[in-house]
Amino acid sequence: QVQLVESGGGLVQAGGSLRLSCAASGRTLSSYGMGWFRQAPGKEREFVAAVSWSGGSTYYTDFLQGRFTISRDNAKNTVYLQMNRLKPEDTAVYYCAASVRLRDPYKTYEYDYWGQGTQVTVSS
Are 96 and 33 in contact (CB under 8 A)? Predict the structure, then answer.
C-alpha cells in the first residue's frame, strides 16, 4: 500500500504558476502509474493529467491547452504537476492518485490510492 501527500497549492493570480508535488511513502512510486485529478465545488472530480511508471508516456485532458505538465522523479518518490498561465476556472482541490494497472488513465476508477488533496485558488 502507498500513502500519497500533495503539497504546493495556494492562492495565485490569474496568469501565474504553481507547482504541485505528490510525495509517496510506503511503497516505491515506480510501481504505479500516477495521475492528477481536480474537483471544484459542486462538480464531479475530473481528470487532469497522468504519467506512466517510467514517465515515458503522459496523458492530458483537452481543456489544458498545453498549460500543465506532469512529471515524475522515481528516485525522490514524487510526482509533479507544473501549472502555468492559470485561470480562475482552474480553482479546485487537486488530488494525486496511484494506479497499479493504468489501463485507462482518464478514469477515476482506475486508481487504487488517493491523496487528501491540495487547494488551488486562482483569483481574477
Answer: no
